[in-house]
Structure formats: structure tokens, C-alpha cells
Design goal:
Helix content of chain A: 40-55%
Oligomer: homodimer
CATH architecture of the largest domain in chain A: 3-Layer(aba) Sandwich
Structural class of chain A: alpha/beta
Shape of chain A: globular
CATH superfamily of the largest domain in chain A: Nitrogenase molybdenum iron protein domain
Distance between the termini of chain A: 74 Å
Number of helices of chain A: 18
CATH topology of the largest domain in chain A: Rossmann fold
Number of domains of chain A: 3
Strand content of chain A: 15-25%
């Protein structure tokens, strides 16, 4: 891995290079995405089936689009029983963590008869996109479905593209069943997003769409935003390890590679105060790359978006971590909790040398759907918050309204909203001028 | 107002008619919005000033774009002192309510040395859009700025279009100062959104943009979503009053009109079980319209999007209220709290005959920025939640990782992510196969 002594110029170049990976830079696909969205909106199932034939090579109709109980049983038979055990153990941890994110309705009353509050309600229905293709990511199914389930969402509709044979991945089906998905449809791509957003004869419209996908899926989600809600738009994965001289270079190298292997756009960055650690990590990375099965991807993502950044002191390391706002941040220093207090921007923060990033991806409990590409400055991990919404509650008595009614009338008239003023005035038999 | 006996057909037609008002139906403006966004992204201040000249007729430069302390003092002199008093009283209530929305970091530890938690951090910077034009809405300034302030956002940059004389509305400036805005720029339209999203020489980039605007502003916000965060996309205002035979028809009529006066796309709907109330409210509405200053707007919005819907029973009323998912919902029945428990979708819920909607717009404390046009099914009122973000916290000891490390390795290998598996294996001197 290249080792760079960080200065203003190199920092600017690196930040710009990382942002190149943003899904916001692919507007050229927007037109074809819009065509698909509009076709499915207008022609519904007909268009949905036609696009599935075109892109996935599978023949769908209203009788086979929904995964059946038989297909799910078949999937269980196909999957290694010990993997199902691991999935179940992971679910226990993920549920336990997300239960702690629950929010509650509250109210506050005063003796004058006024009540103000906030009511929390789960969304009624959610669509979960799960990518297809060669690799299956059952962990992604768990992470997207469980927070919805914990929030109390009644209808959870999953969509995932079928193979040419019209089947979907067995591990995906098992994870969906274990996590509590209520319906699974064999469709993918922008056409699946359109079906969830607008509804077709076979797929009822949902309130919100979550889950990662390729650039077509990402742009389609952005397009339907407002018509339905969406989670944040997923970009390529990242890790930033912030290490001092106490770090174990072998562990750091392995953790950098665990993100770099995702795809060629993934980014792995070490920020360290120690030149010795920088050199050792670089050596360990070279060794591991040779041994690992995803060598080609690792090499490309490291060449394009991998950096070892040498900084003068820990404050500089914290600053650059906050500027990059990495999806995953590992703090491997003498006193990681102290440094954590100064971290403003990160999706998930891993503290100490045994908190390896894949622990969070699969098992510890927190969600692995995290803000990428600098969006940790304003987005949060996927959570129960994403599957609830709130309503304000206002209940005033005459006694509570009376002493403030002239103030409200004054404010409304200042905004020239005379019917607003009138609605207060009429309750006190006053004419609004 | 037209009175309609609700049935499946009329309900479908009404829902479709209401959705016509959605900002999602104005994609034809997207191209001109994209041109503006891109110009400002590339040419920065130069483009920002040129568009301000073109659309607002004001001559801006780097020396006069920022509102000065002198201009703010001048604004205070221009505004009625008793209005400033009312604004200050409103701020006390709005702050008190939003303080209750604060969320706190938490963690959970186990004796094996594992810690899981969630850290809450305010956004660093926020942009607030405030519309210009003839009417000024100081209440909108308060409602957008105060939750950011309560959340702990350090930098709150407001943008608002200038008049031809290069000045901005005095009441807007006073409200901004009172609410705690840190910078005010005299720019509006899509060009202001671009400046906030990408940054220019004069305006530093922000993390999130909130605040209502015209269709250009709404589309610009949607376009920059992902690059920065935005609040939900504002549509035209609405009220739905759910009333039984105990309601006061004069109050109901006045409240319907308080929303209908906003603009020609505003919608006012009464859903009632009582034919007598339906007829009386219709009569009262006619009388009020003749007396009120915004008669033309009232007439048009009532003709296009005003309805009195007669239903068989209260359950049917609740169902249609949930389907319409109104921005404002007033429940004026014998037992409003009982009905409230069955309401799934509404921005703000007003209970009982003294809880008139303008009480919530100006004074009670809850936010008046609410989900419109059916989006209360998945969006929430603007709140402190909009100005914080969360990071997961994961800290495991060797003792905590050891008993689960084989499970994680198994899960990672099942997803063919061998470098993920390796990062766990290496900590236990195991080779990942």
C-alpha cells in the first residue's frame, strides 16, 4: 500500500479521489432508469415481467412471481444446517441490539388542561431490496429486515432478482424466512423498485424501500423518494483504521483487507502516527493479499482507494477521520475510548484490537447498513428509527388557550394569514380584523 | 363546500385528486433546475450572483451577500415591538417542546468485556431555506431553526431571496436573529440550494438543507439529496377535521379555512358522521369566505381540493383519515383521545374543540413543518431527530470474541468474503481456509 505523509495538498487530493466513487456521479444512467420506472408505473405487471425477461432472462407471471412455501422448504434443504444455526445466533444478537433503539410515545401535561406530546407509530409496509447475482448475502437480509420487524412493521415485502431458471438464492430465502419477511418476490433492478413504489397487480405499494443494489437500483430509489421513503443511498464500502504505535500491524492489515475485498471501489485507509506501524502494516498487507482468494479485487481497490496516511500527532489523525467520515472506523490506540469522544463522523466505531470490523458485519448486533462516502456527516446506521414515524399531539382546553389567544392572532395577522387568526378569534367570539 | 357521501369510488377519485398536488408531478422543471445546480457547482459565486441578478433583479457581490449586523439592527427598528414580544414567547414554547425530543447516547456492557452502544452527535452545519416574496413567514424561520439549535448544530446558515433593492424582509431577519441563525445570505431559488450543497467562495457547504420553497427549490433539494441530507420535500398544506355530531360547526369551518387560505393547492377536508354538521359547516364556510381577506385563494382551494365527506360511522372516518394521512388532523368528537389511538397516519393531531390548528402553527411548541400529501405514512414532523446522527459503538475483548469467532468465520465464508473471515481468524492464530 502507498504510504503518504499527510499535508493540506495530499488531503485535498485524497478526499476528492474518494468522492469519485459516489453514486451521485452516475447521472448518465438516469434516463434509462426513468424509462423503466415510468413503464412499470403505467403498464404494471406487464412491464415488470418484460424487464425481468430482458435483464434476468427469467419468465415471470402472476402465478410464479411470489416465492412459495415449497420453494422456501427446498431452500432450507439446500443450506448447510450449521450455517442456519449461525444465522439464528446472529438474529438473537441483532434483535437484542435493535430492541434498545425502540422509541416511545410521550406526552407532557400542565394543570391548565394542555397536553403536548409525540406519538410513535411503525410504518405499515416496507420493501427490502436484496441483490442477486453469484454471491448471496444473507447477513444483508437480516440487517435490513430485523429493524423493521423490531419497529413493528406488519408487512415486509422482499424483492430479489431471479436467475435464468426463475429461482432465487437458497441462503437468501432462509435468511428472509428466519428474519420474518412476509412476502418474497422474484424481481430485481429498477423495475422492482418501481413495483414497490407504485404497486402492480402482483405487488402492493409499500411506504418505504430499503436495501442496497447496483447503480440502477440506487438511482431508482432516489427517483421515487418523496413518493415513498427510502433509506440512504448506498455507496461502496470503506474502512478507516486510526492507529498509534501500540497497534498490532497484522490485525490492522487483515482488517483493512476485509473491506477492500468488497469490490474495486471499496476503500481501506490507515491513519497512523507511527512510521514503524505504517511500514509493517504495508508489509503485512502484501503478504495477506497473496494468500487471499479475492486477490484481484483487493489489488485494484488498494491501488485506487487504499492509503496509509502518516500524521504528526493523534489530533491530526482525528481531524482527518472526521473529514473522511468513514463508514467503518477502527480505533486501535492506547486509549480508544478517549479518542472516540472526539469522533464526530463515522458510521460504526470499533474500539480496541479485538473489535474487528467483520464482528460488526455479522454478529455483534449493531446494523451493518451504514452511511458511506462521507455521508456519516449527516446519515445514521439503518435502525429502528427508519421504520417508525412520529405525529405531534396537541390538546388545549379553553383555559389554556385563552391567555395566549391574542398572541396567536397577532402572529397570524403579521403573516397576513387572516383565516388563521380568525380560527382563534372565533373561539372567543371576537372578530378578526 | 361540496358534500359527498363517501363510497369506494368517490374515495378513490378524491385520493387521486389530492395526489395531483404532489411536487413529484413537476419533473418537467428538472432540466432547468439541473442547469442551475451545475452552473453554481462549477462557477460558484459567479453563477450564484448571475442567477440572483436574473431571477431576483438584485446586484450581489462578495461584499454584500451576507446580511450585516447593521442590517439586522435596521430590521429590528422596522418591526413592531409587540410582534417581537410574541416571537420571543413563541420561542420559549418551541424550545421547551423540542428539548423533550433530545436523544441520548447509550451503551450496554456485559461482564465478558463487551460494550455495544450508540453515540448521538449533532450535525456540524445546516442550511435553512426561507422563501422571500411579498409575504414573510417568521414562524417558518423559528420552526426550522430551533430544532437545529436544540440539537446542538454549531453553524446555521440561512438563505432567503432578496428584493430588487438587495434587501431581505425585516420580520424574517428578526426571527432569524432571535432563533439563533449564525449567517444569513441574500440568495434564493435553486441557486441558493446549490450554493449550500456544493459551497462557493462566499457560502461554505453545509451537511443538511431544510426549509420550504417553490417547485424549483423542492426539485433542487431532491437533486442534491445524497450529496447532503435534506428534510422531506414540502408539498401544499392540508387539514382534515374528523367530527361527530358534538362538534361546533363554526369552529370547524374556521379551522378548515385556516389551511385553505395558504394557496390554491391547499386542501381542507371535513369527514363527519353527522349530516347536520356537514350542512352547518358548509353554511358557516360560505359566510366566513365572504368576510375573509384571502377570499380568492379560499374559493379556489375549496373548489379544487375542499371536501365535506359524509361517512356511516366513526370507524369509516378513521379509515379515510388514515388513508389520506393529512398534514394536520383535528379530532372533534365526544372522545378524541380514544380515536387518536386508532390514527396511524397524520403529521400533527389536534384534539378537542379548543385545539385549533393555528395554535400549532405559531405557538404551542410542536413543529409546524409537517409531512404533506400523504407522506405522513412514512415521514415525521421536523424535529431534533433531523439534526442529529448516530454512530454504532462496538468494543469487544478477546474473552468476548473468542466464543463466537468460529461462527463469524463460518458466516463470512458462506458469503465468500474470505478476507472478512481472515480478519477474525488472524486474532486466534488460525488460518482461514
Amino acid at each position: 500500500m502507498r504510504i503518504i505523509k499527510l499535508d493540506t495538498k495530499s488531503k485535498k487530493d485524497i478526499l476528492e479521489n474518494l468522492l469519485k466513487r459516489s453514486p451521485n456521479n452516475y447521472d448518465s444512467y438516469q434516463e434509462s432508469v426513468n424509462t423503466i420506472l415510468n413503464d412499470v408505473k403505467v403498464k404494471k405487471d406487464e412491464a415488470l415481467f418484460a424487464y425481468t425477461k430482458k435483464f434476468d432472462g427469467a419468465e415471470l407471471n402472476q402465478n410464479n412471481i411470489l416465492v412459495t412455501e415449497d420453494e422456501i422448504s427446498e431452500a432450507y434443504a439446500n443450506v448447510d444446517a450449521s450455517l442456519i444455526d449461525v444465522v439464528r445466533k446472529a438474529i438473537v444478537n441483532i434483535v437484542e441490539y435493535h430492541e434498545k433503539q425502540r422509541q416511545y410515545s410521550w406526552f407532557n401535561s400542565k394543570p391548565d388542561g394542555s397536553i403536548l406530546g409525540q406519538k410513535v407509530t411503525p410504518l405499515s409496509s416496507v420493501g427490502v431490496y436484496v441483490p442477486g447475482g453469484k454471491a448471496a448475502y444473507p447477513s444483508s437480509v437480516l440487517m435490513n429486515v430485523i429493524p423493521a420487524k423490531v419497529a413493528g412493521v406488519e408487512r415486509i415485502a422482499m424483492v430479489t432478482p431471479p436467475g435464468k431458471d426463475g429461482k432465487v438464492n437458497s441462503a437468501t430465502l432462509v435468511a428472509a424466512k428466519e428474519a420474518g419477511v412476509t412476502e418474497i418476490y422474484k424481481v430485481g433492478g429498477a423495475q422492482a423498485i418501481a413495483a414497490l413504489a407504485y404497486g402492480t397487480e402482483s405487488i402492493k405499494k409499500v411506504d418505504k424501500i430499503v436495501g442496497p443494489g447496483n447503480i440502477y437500483v440506487a438511482l431508482a430509489k432516489k427517483s421515487v423518494y418523496g413518493h415513498v421513503s427510502i433509506d440512504s443511498i448506498a455507496g461502496p464500502s470503506e474502512i478507516l483504521v486510526l492507529a498509534d504505535e501500540t497497534a498490532n500491524p497484522r490485525y490492522v492489515a487483515a482488517d483493512l483487507l476485509s473491506q477492500a475485498e468488497h469490490d474495486e471501489l471499496a476503500s481501506a485507509i490507515l491513519v497512523t502516527t507511527s512510521e514503524e506501524i505504517a511500514n509493517k502494516v504495508s508489509d503485512e498487507v502484501e503478504q495477506f493479499v497473496e494468500e487471499l482468494s479475492r486477490k484481484e479485487i483487493l489489488r485494484k481497490s488498494l491501488d485506487n482507494y487504499g492509503y496509509i496516511l502518516l500524521v504528526e500527532n493523534i489530533e491530526e489523525a482525528i481531524d482527518v477521520a472526521n473529514e473522511i467520515a468513514s463508514e467503518h472506523l477502527e480505533i486501535v490506540t492506547k486509549d480508544p475510548f478517549n479518542i472516540m469522544t472526539k469522533i464526530k463522523n463515522a458510521g460504526a466505531i470499533f474500539l480496541g484490537e479485538y473489535s474487528s470490523e467483520p464482528l460488526g458485519d455479522y454478529f455483534a448486533g449493531p446494523n451493518h447498513v451504514l452511511p458511506t462516502n462521507g455521508t456519516a456527516k449527516f446519515f445514521s446506521p439503518l435502525s429502528v428509527d427508519d421504520f417508525i414515524k412520529k405525529s405531534s399531539i396537541i390538546s388545549f382546553s379553553r383555559e389554556a388557550l385563552e391567555p395566549i389567544h391574542r398572541d396567536i392572532i397577532k402572529f397570524a395577522n403579521a403573516e397576513r394569514l387572516t383565516a388563521h387568526a380568525n380560527s382563534i378569534a372565533v373561539r372567543f367570539e371576537e372578530k378578526n380584523k
